[in-house]
Amino acid sequence: MPEEDNFPLPVLVGRDRERDILYxxxxxxxxxxxxxxxxxxxxxxxxxxxxREAVRRARHGGxxxxxxxxxxxxxxxxxxxxxxxxxxxxxxxxxxxxxxxRPYRSALGGLIPEYRSPGAPPVPASPVLLGEAVLRLLSVxxxxxxxxxxxxxxHDADPGTLAVVEYLADNVAGQxxxxxxxxxxxxxxxxxLAQALSRRCSGTLLPLHPxxxxxxxxxxxxxxxxxxxxxxxxxxxxxxxxxxxxxxLAGELVRAMLDSGTLVLDPSGCRxxxxxxxxxxSAVRHTVAGQATxxxxxxxxxxxxxxxxxxxxxxxxLGQALRLDxxxxxxxxxxxxxxxxxxxxGDDHDWYAFRNPTTAVALLGLLTPADQxxxxxxxxxxxxxxxxxxxxxxxxxxxxxAGRAGDVPEAARLxxxxxxxxxxxxxxxxxxxxLERAWELAETSLDGPLRVDVLHELxxxxxxxxxxxxxxxxxxxxxxxxxxxxxxxxLAAVHVQFARLAxxxxxxxxxxxxxxxxxxxxxxxxxxxQTAHVDAVAxxxxxxxxxxxxxxxxxxxxxxxxxxxxxxxxxxxxxxGVLASRRETDEAQACFFRMRQLADRHHLPLWxxxxxxxxAEQRWLLTGDADALVRSAERTRRIGAQTLxxxxxxxxxxxxxxxxxxxxxxxxxxxxxxEAQRLGLHDAVARSILVRAICxxxxxxxxxxxxxxxxxxxxxGTGSPYAALVHGMAYAVxxxxxxxxxxxxxxxxxxxxxxxxxxxxxxxxxxxxxxLLLDVLRGEADWRRCREVGxxxxxxxxxxxxxxxxxxxxxxxxxxxxxxxxxxxTAVRRGPHxxxxxxxxxxxxxxxxxxxxxEPVDWLRQAExxxxxxxxxxxxxxxxxxxxxxxxxxxxxxxxxxxxxxxRLKGVTEREYEVLELMADWSDNRSIASELxxxxxxxxxxxxxxxxxxxxxNRAALSRYAARFRQ
Length: 967
Prior knowledge:
Residues 901-966 form the HTH luxR-type domain. There is one protein chain. This protein is 65% helix and 5% strand. It has 7 domains: 16-207, Rossmann fold, CATH 3.40.50.300; 213-279; 407-526, Tetratricopeptide repeat domain (Serine Threonine Protein Phosphatase 5, Tetratricopeptide repeat), CATH 1.25.40.10; 541-633; 641-767, Serine Threonine Protein Phosphatase 5, Tetratricopeptide repeat, CATH 1.25.40; 783-890; 906-966, Winged helix-like DNA-binding domain superfamily/Winged helix DNA-binding domain (Arc Repressor Mutant, subunit A, Orthogonal Bundle), CATH 1.10.10. It has a 5-stranded parallel sheet, with helices on both faces. Strands 8-10-9 form a 3-stranded antiparallel sheet. The chain contains 47 helices and 10 strands. The two termini are 84 Å apart.
């Protein structure tokens, strides 16, 4: 190394702590307190860079610097690093003739020819004598300025060098010399010596850990000539992943990514081009090959076999494939771990992983494709020998090895098995991903039965995960599946899954075509076991013809349960329950309970989740309680059942809309709609539109309801099953908020016509609720109809029941049964749907006033306050008009009011509230009049009115009330 640095050093990043320790050691040496520091790290971790930093610092501080390195090629040369270090000293300085060195000239002569007597051959000195001679020499050369002796790569040094180093480390503390050595961690004498010196406090170990992401960013920025903030996160993430924080690898990868075009410099800094592949740099391949070679032939073979398996690998499989006994296997694994090439790969002691992905790729480059295939085949056979049934992840693991061995059909079959297991366990994400890989392998295969099996399982996963769009894009695959070797039952099953996907996408005609194709493939003499699945799906399609749908569902359930097909039976029970829910809730719940029992008995988690969601839906419809829906939403999100998740999510948004929480409802449908559209989930999209229509209608925004209905018709044609609900739950309510009951009745009639043409999924279009109330108010419905509706399944649903109770209250009031009428209204007022409650109070108040029952004035005040706060001026004005007709003085409403809502509901005016505020201080009439610039007589009138409205006994009680209210 030259005396002065004539070239800049690379930027030192991520080593601040290590650098500071070296700086402190050099400072201590300059002051006569020596020491030993051993830098420990694998290849490329920056050991030499730290040494160069120490050398630079020492030279700039005027210290004597001696630098030696062990040779990396060929056998170790005796005392090579010491000879190189001392030779450098005598190349730059005169021969030292110091009295303290004379006794050691012969010992030093083995290292320095100048100290050797003329004509005398070199005589090897003992390590102790040679160590003491070197120690004396260092003391002389570093006198008054300090000395740095840096010896690199001691892991390749001869035993004599290590013996001298040990002596120096044990004795250097009393003089001004810093001994700096670098060692690779791993089996060997040098590593043993480093640990021994550390244990007896003769040396400080300085391990070099991987760089963290900020340090990798700094390194990349220095190599690219950019400011650190101009290196984006994706670049840093890629470098951290592929280099595992190794500085050498990270630097080489930056260069390779630039050369390949993966990394592009631009005015804003740099960016990744993902579609461009980066080859492993040759310097990295050379380094990895050297690391593997140092482990010996067996160790290298183990590492290359592990690289064929992947970045993570089970050592038990390696041992079986390479026919290594356990002791040899563990010895090679320990050596690779110590060398920093691999590390434990998780909680399972059998699994290990390469420290960085680049190592595995570089090792693969040492093998020919034929070698890789042979090792993969041996590893696959080892997996089957160790785990014959391929439980858990071993199935997909064996499939990956079969693919790398070139056995594509076997890989596809194993992936189908793994995907089917994941699907049956309810792990939809894993099932879909695994079966997608299987289809990629089987898509071009000439094995017809294999292709049918793979396609069927993939379609099942896509049905359950709700990706209708992806599934229907595979329809063209049917053209290549008509193969004599394909069993008709398997081909029919594929048609059935395509029919289910078409149902999800709202393509009913296509679904019918697929079911007809399935029946044609099976033939007229097909057994009930074969047609049960076809009947179950057909029942869902025939819901608009209840008798036919019920017949198909019953037949599907009977045949499926007889043949032991629990999933098909669940589908049939679901169809039964959906049909029943339109007429009788108890029957629907019984069907869904039976569905859940089957799922529990046969361990079908997806069907259990579906049955649980349907039961939660029934509970919400009956009681308005959405807690079970919330739990179901979380469960479906976890398992990845997209169709079910969007269905439950739309119900929760619907619940929020009916509760008057429109912003939250809009947020929920906005989050869901885009994904549902992408997945092709027609029903979920339609539900989102319905919720938006209800939100708009309940806020009196007719134009937005018009837009929603137009969007619904565009999405599903004129026959959307949700059209009836838009008319009955959005338009009719909107018309009543516009004080147009005739129009509301027209909308309810339109809803009934839509429902008769295409039945709504829920009987909430108004016939069993709002329509009944309007008919009772007009005198067009009597007790008989009221009881029929109230006792029916639809009449018991929470949304309908609140209007049914109000209708009963009106009829009870007409009969003079005031207490029962008031009890019915009280039950409604406790309900969770504020628009329905206050609209209902507004509608029945006139009947209550006429028939002299209830508290119509209080109801109207509450309704007026609610509508005013909700920004609905038309019904608010109607409430005030009705109050005036009742003889109540109605205060003028400003745009903003200081009167708290509880007092507004009692009819307290702005001026009265001002008087009440002053009464909290027990002020008399004259003081209040002076404060408000009114007469004492006017104050007295306001006080009297306040006593009446707040129901206080006297003026003193009113003052106490005012004080409490202010607090």
